[in-house]
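Researcher: Let's try something more involved. This one mixes different molecule types, so please make sure each is placed in the same coordinate frame as the others.
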Amino acid sequence: MSDFVMNSIARVVPNVVGSFHHRFGGTPAHRGIKPRGNSQPLHLLYTFDTRDPLVPVRVRGARYLPLYYCFSYNAGAVGYRVVSDEEITILYMETKHVEPDFPYENYPNEFPKTPVSLTPISYDEHKTLVYYLTCEDYNLHKYFSKEDRAFLKQTGYPFTQLGGIQRMWQDTPEAPCPNKQCEYHKHNCFMQVFAVVWNQPVPKVYLWDDDPKSRWEIQTIFQICPLCNSIYACNRCT
Ligand SMILES: [Zn+2]
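Model: All components are placed in one shared frame. Result:
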């Protein structure tokens, strides 16, 4: 069964400049972001500086870990490999059909460049998050403490989380490694979730639905292959 990267657990804090060069949005720095035969590039969500020990995964040959997703391609799944800080290779597209005005009208070609930083999620905070998910799943909200509610409010949950146990609307996606040369291409149980991004990753920027109240409905999930570091991104909804 697919699982979660657990070696480092952190949340992304928007509009805070830290010691590392993390950012949301901006112009992509990589070649190879247009699927073959198409002119519409992938959308860049985050660029994480892997010199920060809070980034839970590394990619060989690159300092920066870019999170790309194929919103315009009918929100299918995409698989890619980070070749260097200047190039990615798209390994898989669920569909190459470009849906006009999707996910919503006048969808931006790129998201506004926004500095972000990472803050560790402590063992107790992680326990709070996991207990909250369980309470929600079983409709046991009343057992969730005031202190824990205050933590969610203060941190602006749902935030983008790197590493750790995460909410999965439809269980952990079971997908093979998108790299046909990889041993795990034949199996669909080894990809590990390392990031989940929600509708409003930074204030007033909407990925799926430009309604400010829409926070929870759709998640964008990023998984990595522990053997070859190829990335698989997809979405799931309630
Ligand atoms: Zn692989």
